[in-house]
Task: structure prediction
Amino acid sequence: MHSRIYKTLQCNIWAIRNSNEEFIGSIGLLQIKEKYIIEDDQDKKLFNESYEIGYYISSEYRGLGIVSAATNFVCNEIAFKELHLNYNIGMAFANNEQSHNVLKRCGFKFVKLLKGIIKKGDEMRDVYWFIKERQTHIL
Result:
């Protein structure tokens, strides 16, 4: 794991497979309570009431919309409908434009840059924080 701190961890991960049933990636929801060291009390409350979506796909399958489709499904059908969450959080390294674009296409809104919050190797890295709010429809 590459984050700074993990005290409470609850995670669901699903395989992404191609038409031949070969593993090509994964997507998951991670309960992020106390995962990151967050200074702002309002941000901390939001983090503690949310799950983070994370994904990986093999390089030859990138840019085909597979991760966007999986992200939409996991957010809308699992996080919001089954788990009744009000928010989903997406985090992406500041230099990972492809991941930023996936989150934006799936309705996530950029919140802010979090400086030095994730350790990768020997380096503390900056991440962009995105959030998606559950849509409620009034009839």
Notes: Residues 66-82 form the longest helix (17 residues). The chain has one domain: 10-133. The longest strand covers residues 109-120.
